[in-house]
């Protein structure tokens, strides 16, 4: 099981494009690291680089399944929670992005939507 102390190193190994997150403005915790991933993913969607965005989505899914509870919570409460305002506010982007979101993350998102209306 992956713990938060190993998270930055794991991400940098899997996605060298995110290797800068351990330098300069070093993320303080697992939520900061996941916010950094989200910011990168969102920028790739804006630039229509859906291959890079999909790679990051797949990495988020890996982290959700391999990570400890802190990592799972960060993926669910930062990354997945942000889908509505990061990707789905524009109908054209919504159609593009739905195709690259792993099914398991999309199920988490739909569950959040249902539970938010109770």
Task: Spell out the blueprint of helices and strands.
Blueprint (H helix, E strand, L loop, with lengths): L3 H11 L15 H17 L3 H17 L2 H12 L2 H4 L4 H8 L4 H14 L2
Q: Would you write up a description of this structure?
A:
- With 118 residues, the protein is mainly α.
- It has one domain.
- The protein contains seven helices and no strands.
- The protein has helices at 4-14, 30-46, 50-66, 69-80, 83-86, 91-98, 103-116.
- The longest helix is centred in the N-terminal third of the chain and has 17 residues, at 30-46.
- The radius of gyration is 14 Å and the shape is globular.
- The mean pLDDT is 89.
Q: Helical region count?
A: 7
Give helix % range: over 70%
Describe the largest sheet.
Answer: none
Count of individual domains: 1
Strand content: under 5%
Number of strands: 0
Structure classification:
mainly alpha
User: Low-confidence parts, pLDDT < 50 over ≥5 residues?
Assistant: none
Rg calculated over all Cα atoms: 14 Å
Element string (H = helix, E = strand): HHHHHHH
Residue-averaged pLDDT: 89
Tertiary shape = globular
Distance separating the two termini: 33 Å
What would the keywords be for this entry?
globular, mainly alpha, 118 residues, single chain, 7 helices
How would you summarize what this structure contains?
The chain has 118 residues and is mainly α. Helices cover 70% and strands 0% of the residues.
């Amino acid at each position: 099981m992956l713990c938060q102390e190993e998270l930055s190193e794991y991400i940098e190994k899997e996605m060298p494009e995110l290797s800068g997150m351990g330098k300069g403005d070093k993320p303080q915790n697992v939520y900061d690291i996941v916010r950094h991933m989200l910011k990168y993913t969102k920028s790739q969607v804006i630039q229509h680089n859906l291959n890079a965005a999909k790679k990051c989505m797949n990495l988020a899914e890996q982290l959700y399944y391999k990570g400890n509870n802190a990592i799972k919570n960060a993926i669910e409460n930062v990354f997945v929670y942000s889908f509505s305002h990061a990707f789905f506010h524009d109908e054209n982007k919504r159609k593009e992005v739905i195709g690259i979101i792993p099914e398991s993350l999309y199920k988490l998102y739909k569950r959040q939507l249902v539970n938010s209306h109770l």
